[in-house]
């Protein structure tokens, strides 16, 4: 008997028919002899609709009350799913995040899980019931207020519960058949990836692949929780996220000793680029810029600093950040202009990031050249470049993202001979 945590996204529980179908899958897993714990997202686009409603009432709603509002979406879906399971003859109990023991910090809208104390969940399991937990939410350790974990937080809820319960697997059910080598909405011939390491999946998530939330993969890696990404609309095998690069030779079960050179191509259209023009080339200037942005709680992604011009002793610093933080960043930097003495600021939110991810690039020369040649061959201009051990990212114009993704995918022979990816609905979550 295994302990299985199953998470169902919004598109999987979008309406009554979908909820009944999910209930049948859960009951089938239970009847196969497993202990099942379920985490659910809000139905369909409920969270977006609640956000729109809040904005109609208040242009700047208090964080505490917004969290109280948004968590109602998951409570609706958990209760309905429990009813559907009861209708199939099995006992089910629904729990909010706080009832399930998900303890967080006090950061409304983007709280982080501090601890999980799943006493009530374990008791329900021991009594033969199926616990249904509202994802995306918890309770603050300090204030005892309801908190939310940010977009994609239900993934993190599921993995955190799986770790606390020492579950055998955390199954993430979405509306595509696993993790693919590119977004099938852009590359219909993208291939399914049967197995991928935590590190590669983290790079893909950080680079814009929406199939799994970054914090979910980080949590899974830290606690060694195997993640199985599958579709709730089919019975295909999907993708296993398991194993680290340090033990890569064992992740393929001995079938092949070498990792594929490239696992996939990811993209992100949610970034903006800021250039600080004419920064005096002296000690402490860059530190002052990025300290101010950190104090404003702005996450920076890619950073490029030009060589200073000999005639002026000044340089330009460009960086990317979430477009939602663009205005805050510009306001923060404008306040520093007189103190630091830089010339001006440039802002561009019509950019996108395209990333090539793969453990094999560590030991294969020429990957960068092949990637850049493919981008150039598609007539796409590169504005910025950033690399890690297993990732190469470029910033390109927003309207050229699709061409860049398709070109890179072809260049590394990732295309399938046939269309493998089926998008069953929703947004891929």
The second-level CATH architecture of one domain is 3-Layer(aba) Sandwich
Look at the structure and give the mean pLDDT. 91
Distance separating the two termini: 29 Å
Helical segment count: 12
Shape call:
globular
Supply Rg: 23 Å
Poorly predicted parts: 249-258
The CATH superfamily of one domain is Acetylglutamate kinase-like
The count of strands amounts to 20
Structural class: alpha/beta
If you had to describe this structure to a student in words, what would you say it looks like?
This protein is an alpha/beta fold and 429 residues long. It has a domain at 3-251: 3-Layer(aba) Sandwich (Carbamate kinase), CATH 3.40.1160. It has helices at residues 16-31, 46-57, 63-87, 119-126, 153-164, 198-206, 214-223, 248-251, 285-295, 326-340, 367-377, 401-411; strands at 3-8, 35-40, 92-95, 102-104, 113-116, 130-134, 137-140, 146-148, 169-174, 195-196, 227-231, 239-241, 264-268, 271-280, 303-305, 314-322, 344-348, 351-357, 384-388, 391-397. The longest helix has 25 residues, at 63-87. It is globular. The relative contact order is 0.12.
């Amino acid at each position: 008997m295994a302990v299985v945590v199953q998470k169902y996204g919004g598109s999987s529980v979008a309406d009554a028919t979908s909820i009944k179908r999910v209930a049948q899958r859960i009951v089938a897993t239970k009847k196969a002899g497993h202990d099942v714990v379920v985490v659910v997202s809000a139905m369909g686009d409920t969270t977006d609709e609640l956000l729109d409603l809040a904005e109609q009432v208040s242009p700047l709603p208090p964080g505490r009350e917004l969290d109280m509002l948004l968590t109602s979406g998951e409570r609706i879906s958990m209760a309905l799913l429990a009813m559907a399971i009861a209708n199939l003859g099995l006992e089910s109990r629904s729990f909010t995040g706080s009832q399930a023991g998900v303890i967080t910090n006090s950061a409304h809208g983007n709280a982080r899980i501090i601890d999980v104390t799943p006493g009530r969940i374990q008791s329900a399991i021991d009594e033969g019931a199926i616990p249904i937990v509202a994802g995306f939410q918890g309770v603050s350790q300090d204030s005892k207020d309801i908190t939310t974990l940010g977009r994609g937080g239900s993934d993190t809820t599921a993995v955190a519960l799986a770790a606390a319960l020492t579950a055998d697997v955390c199954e993430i059910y979405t509306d595509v058949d696993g993790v693919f080598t590119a977004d099938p909405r852009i590359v219909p011939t993208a291939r399914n990836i049967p197995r991928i390491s935590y590190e590669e999946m983290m790079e893909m998530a950080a680079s814009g692949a929406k199939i799994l939330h970054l914090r979910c993969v980080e949590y899974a890696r830290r606690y060694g929780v195997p993640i199985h990404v599958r579709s709730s609309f089919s019975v295909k095998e999907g993708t296993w996220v398991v194993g680290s690069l340090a033990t890569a030779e064992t992740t393929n079960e001995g079938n092949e000793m070498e990792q594929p050179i490239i696992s996939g191509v990811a993209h992100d259209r949610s970034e903006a680029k800021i250039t600080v023009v004419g920064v005096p080339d002296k000690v402490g200037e860059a530190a002052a810029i990025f300290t101010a942005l950190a104090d404003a709680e702005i996450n920076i992604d890619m950073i490029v600093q030009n060589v200073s011009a000999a005639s002026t002793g000044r340089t330009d610093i460009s960086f990317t950040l979430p477009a939602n933080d663009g205005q805050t960043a510009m306001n923060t930097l404008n306040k520093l202009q007189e103190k630091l003495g830089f010339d001006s600021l440039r802002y561009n939110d019509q950019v996108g990031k395209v990333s090539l991810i793969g453990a094999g690039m560590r030991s294969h020369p020429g990957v960068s050249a092949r990637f850049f040649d493919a981008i150039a061959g598609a007539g796409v201009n590169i504005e910025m470049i950033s690399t890690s051990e297993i990732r190469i990212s470029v910033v390109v114009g927003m309207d050229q993202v699709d061409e860049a993704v398709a070109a890179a995918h072809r260049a590394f022979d990732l295309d399938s001979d046939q269309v493998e990816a089926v998008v069953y609905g929703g947004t891929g979550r």
